[in-house]
């Protein structure tokens, strides 16, 4: 009798041990998973903004159109007691609003709180973009401009990329239509039986 009970309990013990091991592993690795992983700075340029020196950094270089990337801005004396506004001007001299107001205040970067930043900022046009930056701090207000060359969008033209992406759907729709018509025919039996 005890053998049959042990045979039933053994898999439960093994499952409980496995669940405990998974919980211990999850708790042990949680701090590493929650640690901030700053976006790597690939390229930096320095801009003079009035009496301030500002480091503008980019997560990808060269900058290409239609690719989201992170921009960070760090004054040489830190962001404490400083405020900054940014206006992005397109190559054809229009103000660009990418999900943000025209004259946007720079906020702390989400992955590195010692600098300001823009997450997943997308520049849709090729040409030279101009970022007009105005800062205010202990040495008074100042303004400056960063000229940023933006190259062409990588990869095939957008229409060809969409066509390749939609090919499976374009093949699936007629195939499903044919299968639906063929299966509808089989639903009607040729003769009825009362068996």
Distance between the termini: 51 Å
The residue-averaged pLDDT reads: 83
Query: Can you count the beta strands?
Result: 9
Biggest beta-sheet profile? 5 strands, antiparallel
CATH class of the domain at 43-150: Mainly Beta
Q: Return Rg in Å.
A: 30 Å
The CATH topology of the domain at 43-150 turns out to be S-adenosyl-L-methionine-dependent methyltransferases
**How much of the residues is beta strand, in percent?**
25-35%
Low-confidence stretches: none
Protein architecture, described:
- The chain has 2 helices and 9 strands.
- The chain has a domain at 43-150: S-adenosyl-L-methionine-dependent methyltransferases (Single Sheet), CATH 2.20.130.20.
- It is an alpha+beta fold and 195 residues long.
- The longest helix has 33 residues, at 2-34.
- Strands 4, 5, 6, 8 and 9 form a 5-stranded antiparallel sheet that branches. The chain has a 4-stranded antiparallel sheet with strand order 1-2-3-7, with no helix packed on it.
Helices and strands in order:
Elements: H1 2-34, E1 43-49, E2 52-58, E3 69-75, E4 83-89, E5 95-96, E6 104-105, E7 116-121, E8 127-137, E9 140-150, H2 158-186
């Amino acid at each position: 009798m005890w053998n049959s009970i042990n045979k039933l309990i053994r898999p439960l013990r093994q499952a409980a041990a496995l669940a405990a091991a998974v919980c211990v592993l999850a708790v042990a690795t949680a701090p590493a998973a929650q640690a901030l992983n700053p976006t790597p700075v690939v390229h930096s340029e320095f801009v003079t903004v009035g009496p301030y020196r500002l480091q503008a950094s980019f997560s990808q270089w060269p900058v290409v159109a239609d690719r989201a990337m992170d921009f960070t801005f760090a004054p040489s004396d830190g962001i404490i007691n400083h405020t900054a506004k940014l206006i992005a001007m397109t190559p054809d001299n229009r103000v660009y609003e990418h999900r943000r107001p025209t004259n946007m205040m720079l906020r702390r970067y989400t992955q590195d709180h010692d600098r300001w930043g823009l997450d997943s900022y997308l520049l849709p046009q090729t040409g030279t973009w101009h970022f007009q930056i105005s800062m205010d701090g202990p040495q008074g207000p100042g303004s400056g401009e960063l000229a940023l060359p933006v190259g062409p969008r990588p990869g095939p033209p957008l229409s060809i990329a969409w066509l390749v992406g939609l090919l499976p759907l374009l093949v699936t729709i007629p195939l499903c239509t044919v299968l639906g018509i063929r299966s509808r025919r089989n639903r009607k039996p040729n003769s009825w039986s009362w068996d």
